[in-house]
Design brief:
This protein is α/β, with parallel strands linked by helices. Helices cover 32% and strands 19% of the residues. The strands form 3 sheets. A 3-stranded mixed beta sheet has the order 1-5-6. A hairpin with a 4-residue loop joins strand 3 and strand 4. The protein is globular, with a radius of gyration of 19 Å. The two termini are 22 Å apart. The model has no long low-confidence stretch (mean pLDDT 91).
Length: 239
């Protein structure tokens, strides 16, 4: 479900929008791979449900499945590549400091629909090999800053081709934990906290998402397979 704000006027034609999407994918691929030492790999669209490779998201979403008569087995459309990427890192023998990047397509039939979310998913998805000593907030923040630099650099190139674009992103990231957000806005719902904080700071990384806060409620859902809530988070922008 798409909601178009009253008075909205697109800055690009539909034709140029499609060309811009193509350019974004090409430029961002190169910048993110360079920033994080990643290699693009082809990801599966369907998987064998018996392998357990399909991600279960928050644990309640139902994957889309169908039978494949030619092989006498069932198949599932992927919901996320979280598990498959770790399998790929092992199978392809990636060393520490290297990783995979996928242009992932998926179907999430139980997705809550809005202007950012669809049952059809088309997104970049990556994972890299790090050491146990790198599982720190400091390293996480370094990676987030590199991602933001790649995103802002992509925007710079896009605006060179389409100078009519008025989008401007903040390059300095404000880091905050989900608990700090709850402490700042105890009467607001999680998404309202996000909106309030991001409106002020523009580029924000919310850390420690998934575990229960002092209120007893999580900020947002995460896969029950995750075992380190403190290093889980979301990167948000306000143009």
């Amino acid at each position: 479900m798409t909601i178009i704000p009253e008075g909205y006027e697109p800055q690009l034609s539909l034709y140029d929008t499609q060309r811009a999407i193509e350019r974004i994918k090409h430029v961002f691929l190169a910048k993110l791979c360079a920033a994080l030492h990643l290699v693009r790999v082809t990801a599966p669209l369907v998987v064998d449900p018996s392998t357990g490779i399909n991600d279960n998201l928050n644990g309640v979403e139902r994957p889309v499945g169908f039978d494949v008569p030619a092989v006498g087995a069932d198949a599932e459309v992927v919901q996320s590549l979280a598990k498959w990427k770790r399998y790929a890192l092992k199978r392809y023998d990636f060393n520490v400091g290297k990783g995979v990047l996928c242009d992932m397509n998926a179907i999430r039939r139980d997705e809550e629909l809005d202007n950012l979310h669809s049952i059809y998913v088309d997104q970049w998805d990556w994972e890299k090999v790090i050491t146990k000593d790198q599982r720190t907030s400091e390293y996480l923040h370094e990676v987030v800053n590199r991602i933001v630099t790649a995103i802002c650099g992509t925007l710079d190139e896009l605006k060179w081709y389409y100078p009519q674009l008025e989008t401007d992103l903040e390059r300095n990231v404000t880091f905050v934990t989900a608990q700090e957000l709850e402490d700042l806005y105890p009467t607001l719902e999680p998404k309202e906290r996000e909106n309030r904080f991001v409106a002020e700071h523009r580029t924000v990384f919310i850390q420690s998402i998934g575990g229960a806060l002092r209120s007893g409620k999580p900020h947002d859902g995460r896969s029950p397979d995750y075992d380190d809530w403190d290093l889980n988070g979301d990167l948000l922008f306000s143009a």
